[in-house]
Amino acid sequence: MMTHPGHSLFILLGIPGLEDQHTWISLPFLLFYLVAVLGNSLLVFIIMTERSLHEPMYFFLCMLGVADLILSTTTVPKALAIFWFHAGEISLDGCVTQIFFIHATFIAESGILLAMAFDRYVAICDPLCYTTVLSRAVIIRVGLAVVLRSFSVILPDVFLVKRLPFCHSNMLPHTYCEHMAVAKFACADIRVNVWYGLSVLLSTVVVDALLILVSYIFILNAVFQLPSRGALQKALGTCGSHLGVISMFYLPGIFTIIAQRFEHHVPPYIHILLANVCMLAPPMLNPIIYGVKTRQIRECVVSTLSSQWKLC
């Protein structure tokens, strides 16, 4: 289907090469989405209502839960509509809106993970200053900084995409709108889009990952010097939860980049599936990892569910 320059409607095709399997593929998408929505909603509710969890680490976890809800809700419902009803039509404005929220939320999550790493660093390496360094006012400022950074660096993406004239096929082989996937269909020079997208990735997500790595080098060095075995196990348990969440966030992205590097040898559907894993895995697994690994959250969840069961 060819359209005139400046067309404003795209057709998302889902996962190319696996169209006849869309119904089956939709099942894990639906399951992951339900787990993500229910798990993160419960996590946010527990942290906001349980006063014993009103601590910096849990406030950051609450922010992460909200970001996960936004990220999964921005992508999965549209993917399910494609799989079930072949409803792939999306306007240019809708596409740009999806691009904005996906990328802004992804960068926000990276910033939140960095804040959580800093929280663990202060708690373990300088515990006497913990309440002073991470006061309620500081947490609010960190949250605002994360949101402002993600919005300010992604907002130009909106204008970079909106300025492009589109004269190639409007069939997008994807389940959601992604900046460069859309830009490739423009009949204009997209070098600005390419370089700006790369600079945003390097200056935010890559820098965050490096700072998290440095912080955990100091954290683990301090942890293994703890004299008490009980304190060592507690610190490793808390850090283990965070490292698990970090792995779920960064590893799918790394695999996606590797697949893109060898794109001529990797089927297109692998690219799309890996991209969807980046959107699906962290929101689903984050509440499970923290719910299982963090005793305080686990106890509050059990207490809340048991009280609700008695009321029923």
UniProtKB/TrEMBL annotation:
One of its GO terms (molecular function) is olfactory receptor activity. Residues 39-290 form the G-protein coupled receptors family 1 profile domain. Gene3D superfamilies: Rhodopsin 7-helix transmembrane proteins. This is Olfactory receptor. SUPFAM superfamilies: Family A G protein-coupled receptor-like. Putative odorant or sperm cell receptor. Odorant receptor. It is a multi-pass membrane protein. Keywords: Cell membrane, G-protein coupled receptor, Membrane, Olfaction, Receptor, Sensory transduction, Transducer, Transmembrane, Transmembrane helix. The chain crosses the membrane at residues 24-46, 58-87, 99-118, 138-155, 200-223, 235-258, 270-289. Belongs to the G-protein coupled receptor 1 family. InterPro entries: GPCR_Rhodpsn (IPR000276), GPCR_Rhodpsn_7TM (IPR017452), Olfact_rcpt (IPR000725), OR51/52/56-like (IPR050402). It comes from Bos mutus grunniens (Wild yak). It is found in: Cell membrane; Membrane. PANTHER family: OLFACTORY RECEPTOR (PTHR26450:SF97), OLFACTORY RECEPTOR 56B1-RELATED (PTHR26450). GO terms for cellular component: plasma membrane. Its main location: membrane. Signal peptide: none annotated. Pfam families: 7tm_4 (PF13853). It comes from the Eukaryota.
